[in-house]
Design brief:
The protein has a domain at about 20-48. The chain is built from two helices and no strands. The chain is an all-alpha fold.
Length: about 50
């Protein structure tokens, strides 16, 4: 059994700050737009 290294308070503080990159919905939207001849750059934030 693994012991949690973070306290409950620290984990609660940390979790909302973790953000996903290239999530499935974003990849699908980017793929559809690419087929429609729109080109997106990954460095520019796309509203999710």
């Amino acid at each position: 059994m693994n012991k949690d290294r973070l306290t409950k308070e620290r984990r609660s503080w940390n979790m909302p700050r973790i953000r996903g990159k290239d999530t499935t919905p974003k990849r699908i939207v980017r793929s559809l737009l690419h087929r429609m001849a729109y080109r997106l750059h990954r460095r520019i934030p796309v509203p999710a």
